[in-house]
Amino acid sequence: MTSKPDSATEPRAVAVNVLKGGFGKSTTAINLARELAERNGRVLLIDLDDNGHTTFNLGYRDQYESDNHVQQVLLDGEDPLDHVVSVTDELDLLPSHEALEEVETNLKSAMASSQRLNRNVVDPLLGDTYSYIVIDTPANRGKINDNALFAAKNLLVPLRPESGWESGITQTNKRLIQEARQYFDLQLLALVPTDLSERLDQSTRDRNLLYAINSRDELASFVPNFAHLSAADWEAIDDGNYDGPLPGIRHRASIDKAHRARKPLRDYDPECDQLKCYEELAQIVENGGVSR
């Protein structure tokens, strides 16, 4: 189990983002936010993904279908605290809304259109009201995504071992990270392999993903320790001698069942062995990057 942060840890916002759907953004955002709250006190989780999975998986479908609070906060300047809901004692949620497409359209003609989330939510709340803010983002480019990146300035990229993961990270780097860095400092904190279940001693999708991100110089430093494999580890795997932990966030029925129960994993199954991975992600956010 990772150690608690010291009192000098600075407040930080982080966006969970990849330009491809179905890669575990919502699961990562929910459980990262919950672990940050467990370790640090009050945390705000913001759902800006138009599919609303984070909102649904925490039991707030009614807010998704009610008045357009995202419009009211980002464009009308209403107090975001009037629209947050409680997930646990220390974790709040600003839910998504079914009319985010309308918000996207209206942002295009708004003054300082990419700075609204920062000005109206993150800047006034981070540090004073919340120790950390986690933002679940859309899987497509647009003003809402721009708002998330500008407000967070820190990024986690979840990756599932599916066809298209390479194009997902390539597009995320080219169309989000590199473009954003022309205008503000955006830090990639970690690449997060998630929902792994296959063997590594055969040519599986899990192996291909893990080998690629661990062997490429431009990616390896962003791989969390729970997914890190050295050259010696790969040799041991291929020789049948590897006795280390299975890398990556592994597929567990408890993770899916927690969504159906409308709870974060910690609150549904506090004994799940994958909680240690989300704890390390929380530590990465606290520290501002991966530490070996």
From TrEMBL:
TM helices/strands, residue ranges: none
Domain of life: Archaea
UniProt organism field: Natronorubrum bangense JCM 10635
UniProt xrefs under InterPro entries: AAA_dom, DNA_Partitioning_ATPase, P-loop_NTPase
Name of the protein: SojC2
Positions of the AAA domain: 13-175
Pfam families, per database record: AAA_31
